[in-house]
Write a structure and sequence with these properties.
The complex is a heterodimer of chains A (about 650) and B (about 325). Chain A has about 650 residues and is α+β, with helices and mostly antiparallel strands. Helix content of chain A is about 40%, strand content about 15%. Chain A is elongated, with a radius of gyration of 39 Å. In chain B, strands 3-4-5-2-6 form a 5-stranded parallel beta sheet, sandwiched between helices. In chain B, α4 packs parallel to α5 and α12 packs across α14. Chain B is globular and about 65 Å long. The chains are: A alpha+beta (about 650), B alpha/beta (about 325). Chains A and B meet through α22 and β17 of A and β1, α2, α3 and α9 of B. β17 of chain A pairs antiparallel with β1 of chain B.
């Protein structure tokens, strides 16, 4: 026993010489014969290491001969592709620990077998290997083809081989498919080697996912306090809905709305949906975002359901309905996905000055970064909209999509139904067990957290008015002139605004006013002097003060007037003229017109009572309404008297004639 | 006063041969008076079909002389449509419509001579040296027709007689004028189409009231003459005595028309042709009145029936299709 054992040579790593740290093998998974061989080999190796017996004894005991012991031990001590020791794994029968390499100098070689020839080719011509790799992975601008098929790569390979003047008797020309199969196998291996790069061959989504998920840990693994962090996102509803609109002639027609958006806010800690809003526009705007935020903060009111059989689950609801501590509650951080509407001045200003939260704009186009809300949308679609006959399905090839527009009309699935459905679905969602929070319901979890004293910050009492959410501040100069006798006024979006105080303050002409505009309702504007003192509510002149209209509507009307598509006189209500124009378009089938009509009517005829409307505004509106009413009366009177005079004249004339028989 | 005895089927209502001065008729009359007084050469009167244009013109012809205070010769001609219009046919039609006894069936020039002579004769008689020609269905007139009319106009003008041409037709007339304008045929427009008068049907409740008043009032409608019995009174003597009047029912009928139009989804502007409105009233009078069911007065359901019987709905539906 004086001879040096293999593992006692110098220059070996500690893990190579210590079988106790070697990777092990689950013997049970081997077949019986393999297990027997493996066990004998293992015993032999251990005996060798422990110097328990010499080689002849080992052979006697285990049946593994001298040569094999040495071979096996060398196998065990070698490193695998990942750089770890093979260990006992190398003792599994038929396990390959070394890659196959063809030895071209071997004279005993069977020329008909081409094993290893492809790798040999690549080894001989490294530039061919680079070419294949580049083509497959789309590197180094070798081709403009987005995802080159193996077939085309093979063609390039053959061209390259011809250029290299490889004789036709040599590989790859001496095989049936000119090395195509070998190339396919090579490319498959390549794909696994360069996962991130190869995945881009399967589209943008797969690439995003490969690049941004499955590695590392989140920096804040869990948010505990409710209302600490919320996520916001918008989603286009996978379904078509119908609305009934009245044409100018008084007939009711059913029109299909273009697909539109649902915007929601979810609490990260408890997965509660705090609020939502629906936007009928093609793209949702800053005011839609603010509607959603407003709905999340205002105490929620249940809808009056009209769909037969539809009810709210008893355990569901919105947080503000159930826990009074969450009424008017605001959050600390809001996570966006950096859409353009999120960086609008209105949103930025209101989030900072009214809600007082931090904004995390987040990256564009990385839905996995706001996984919680994205997951919610998936639930909403799968549990709700994808089960309706009017669904578009999740993609154009979805088998659930069967003429959604027609179904919407046929089954009369209207926009009003949608509003009820969404309210019920979200309310039920808040009361259903959620896997992400250990199968508690979001509301239940919120209750527990509130009991622990994790109460959210609430909006200050003086800020609790609905109008404040939609408010933006602008500066306007007071116009008017002593020379021409025009009394002072301010101009905003094509309309003059006045009130009595301003009219009687000619000294303000030329000075700047600070205006607080509620973009949801432009009938009135609150004005302040430059030093910040209040001037009161200004009212839009003429019929603009009758129907509530949003900034969006005003702009649309002004642009139509500018393009001479509509016109109104002092006696017409512009919003009414606009609605009529849209209805005409909608009945002609113009895209988007139906959505716009519905939007205008929603703003104008909103039945919801506004919360904490400032008194000044109501007063200003009331006096404007009175003014308009009296004007209308005067007009009617003059029309009537004119009409009567005309009729009188004809009546007198008539007396001079008699009916005549012919 | 006893109810006049009239044999069934001879009352103007039953025969449908009567003209009443509606507001539109009077409006047209005013326009006509303006033409005559200002010696204008022509005017176009247009409106939807079946609206009562022709009857209105007839009424106007009858009453115009008394309104102006001097006899004014008026000739009325129908424009017939031919596949190939020719001077010969046009003049012959005119002569026939003027009831000229011996039309020369030869050369157009001769026939024109006859027409001019006829007109001259009539104009001379009136002392105003004016004559009025009414072309009915004038939308059928082509550029040739207007040129031939121009020839007549010019010949009369040489004799110091002025002719006014009143073209009565459907709304295509306006389109025709636009067409002439484009073709720079200002001589035609300048002569015959400078003035226009849009003839409407019944559009408002007040107009309806005025018309129904004509049926009620013995001063306007009375049969037999000088009997003091208005049409309404004759057919509903008891109701009339109790104070019921068609005029008072006007709002009911107006509402019925509105409702029925909605029921059939008629989207056009509210404009009821006089013909159907008259049919409605005649129906009501005939069916439920003295010669029919002899009801005291007409109830709403009966009015509805009368409207439906008038054929108004069918005509409007087809009009909407056309």
């Amino acid at each position: 026993m004086s001879r040096l054992r293999i593992h006692e040579k110098e220059g070996l790593l500690p893990e190579q010489v210590n079988p106790e740290v070697w990777p092990t093998v689950d013997e049970q998974s081997l077949s019986e014969t393999s297990r027997d061989i493996y066990n004998r080999r293992r015993e032999a190796v251990i005996m060798y290491f422990k110097r328990e017996a010499d080689l002849t004894e080992i052979k006697e005991k285990t049946g593994v001969d001298e040569q094999s012991v040495r071979r096996l031990i060398k196998r065990c001590m070698s490193l695998d592709g990942h750089g770890t020791i093979w260990g006992f794994r190398a003792l599994i029968p038929q396990k390959k620990v070394k890659k196959y390499e063809l030895n071209p100098l071997n004279t005993a070689r069977n020329e008909t077998r081409k094993s290893g020839e492809f790798n040999l080719l690549l080894a001989k011509y490294p530039d061919i290997k680079d070419l294949i790799d580049d083509l497959y992975l789309g590197r180094n601008r070798r081709t403009l083809e987005p995802a080159m098929k193996p077939k085309s790569i093979h063609k390039k390979l053959i061209e390259e081989c011809r250029k290299k003047e490889i004789p036709l008797s040599a590989y790859p020309f001496n095989t049936k498919h000119m090395g195509y199969k070998a190339l396919q196998r090579y490319l498959n291996r390549l794909a696994y080697l360069y996962f991130g790069k190869a995945v881009s061959r399967f589209g943008h989504d797969a690439e995003q996912k490969a690049r941004h998920t499955g590695e590392g840990e989140q920096n804040h693994p869990s948010t505990i306090p409710p209302y600490q962090k919320i996520q916001f996102d918008a989603h286009r509803i996978d379904g078509f809905f119908a609305v009934k609109i009245k044409t100018p002639e008084g007939d009711e027609v059913t029109k299909v709305l273009d697909r539109f958006w649902i915007l929601t806010i979810i609490d990260v800690a408890t997965r509660n949906i705090l609020g939502y809003s629906i936007s009928l526009s093609k793209e949702y705007s800053a005011s839609d975002v603010m509607h959603c935020i407003r709905n999340a903060i205002l105490p929620h009111e249940k809808l009056q359901l009209t769909i037969p059989g539809l009810t709210y689950h008893e355990i569901g609801g919105f947080p503000s309905e159930i826990y009074s501590a969450t009424q008017w509650a605001v959050w600390d951080v809001i996570c966006f996905d950096n859409a353009k509407s999120h960086v609008a001045n209105l949103v930025k200003d209101r989030l900072k000055n009214l809600i007082g939260c931090f904004t995390n704009l987040g990256p564009v186009d990385l839905p996995m970064r706001r996984g919680i809300i994205e997951r919610f949308f998936k639930i909403l679609e799968e549990m709700g909209f994808h089960r309706l006959p009017n669904t578009t399905g999740s993609n154009p090839d979805d088998p659930r999509r069967k003429d959604p527009e027609e179904s919407a009309i046929k089954f009369d699935i209207s926009y009003d139904h949608l509003k009820e459905l969404i309210d019920v679905m979200i309310s039920n969602y808040n009361g259903s067990p959620h896997g992400g929070i250990y199968h508690q319901t979001p509301l239940e979890l919120l209750g527990k957290r509130l009991d622990q004293g994790l109460l959210p910050r609430q909006l200050e009492e003086r800020m609790r008015s609905e109008v404040l959410f939609m408010q933006t501040t602008i500066k306007r100069t007071v116009r008017g002139s002593i020379a021409s006798g025009k009394k002072p006024y301010v101009h905003y979006e094509g309309v003059e605004y006045r009130n009595e105080k301003l009219t009687n303050s000619a000294h303000l002409i030329g000075q700047d006013l600070i205006l607080h505009v509620n973009v949801d309702d432009l009938r009135t504007i609150k004005a302040f002097l430059a030093d910040g003192s209040e001037l009161g509510y200004l009212t839009a002149v003429g019929k603009w003060s009758i129907t509530p209209h949003s900034l969006q509507t005003r702009k649309a009307i002004n642009s139509l007037v500018l393009r001479k598509l509509i016109h109104y006189t002092t006696w017409d209500d512009p919003v009414f003229v606009y609605t009529e124009y849209l209805m005409k378009n909608a009945s002609k089938g113009k895209r988007g017109a139906t959505n716009k009509v519905t939007h205008v009517q929603e703003t104008a005829q909103s039945k919801r009572k506004r919360v904490n409307v400032p008194e000044g505004e109501t007063q200003a509106l009331e006096s404007a309404a009175k003014h308009n009413e009296s004007l209308e009366k005067a007009r009617e009177l003059s029309n009537k008297s004119q009409n009567e005079a005309e009729l009188d004249r004809y009546e007198k004339m008539m007396k001079q004639f008699k009916t005549q028989s012919l | 006063m006893d109810k006049p005895k009239i044999s069934i089927g001879t009352h103007p209502i039953e025969q449908g041969h009567y003209l009443i001065p509606t507001k539109e008729v009077l409006r047209l009359m005013e326009s006509l008076i303006r033409i005559v007084n200002n010696r204008l050469p022509g005017m176009i009167v247009y409106g939807r079909p079946r609206i009562g244009k022709t009857s209105a013109v007839k009424f106007a012809i009858e009453n115009l002389p008394t309104q102006i205070g001097a006899p004014l010769p008026i000739l009325i001609a129908n424009s017939n449509s031919y596949r190939v219009p020719s001077e010969e046919k046009f003049f012959l039609d005119l002569l026939n419509d003027f009831k000229f006894p011996f039309p020369a069936r030869r050369k157009p020039a001769e026939m024109r001579r006859q027409i001019v002579n006829l007109m001259m004769e009539k104009a001379e008689k009136s002392k105003l040296r004016r004559i009025m020609l009414i072309m009915d269905e004038a939308h059928r007139l082509t550029e040739f027709h207007f040129n031939w009319l121009m020839d007549i106009y010019n010949e009369l003008d040489r004799e110091k007689i002025s002719m006014s041409v009143l073209s009565v037709g459907q709304e295509e007339l306006l389109a025709r004028r636009t067409f002439f304008l484009e073709q720079k045929k200002s001589q035609i427009i300048g002569r015959f189409m400078t003035h226009e008068h849009h003839y409407y049907g019944i559009r408002t409740l007040d107009e309806m009231k005025l018309i129904m008043k004509c049926y009620d009032s013995p001063e306007i409608s009375e049969y037999p003459e000088n009997s003091g019995w208005s049409y309404t009174r004759y057919f509903f003597p008891e109701g009339f005595a109790k104070g019921s009047r068609l005029e008072k029912d006007a709002s009911i009928i107006h509402q019925l028309f509105v409702d029925i139009r909605k029921e059939y989804g008629l989207a056009s502007d509210f404009e009821i042709p006089m013909e159907y409105f008259a049919f409605t009233i005649e129906n009501a009078l005939k069916i439920f009145g003295a010669h029919g069911d002899q009801c005291d007065w007409i109830c709403e359901e009966q009015w509805r029936q009368a409207i439906k019987l008038s054929g108004y709905i069918e005509s409007e539906v087809y009009m909407a299709l056309a």
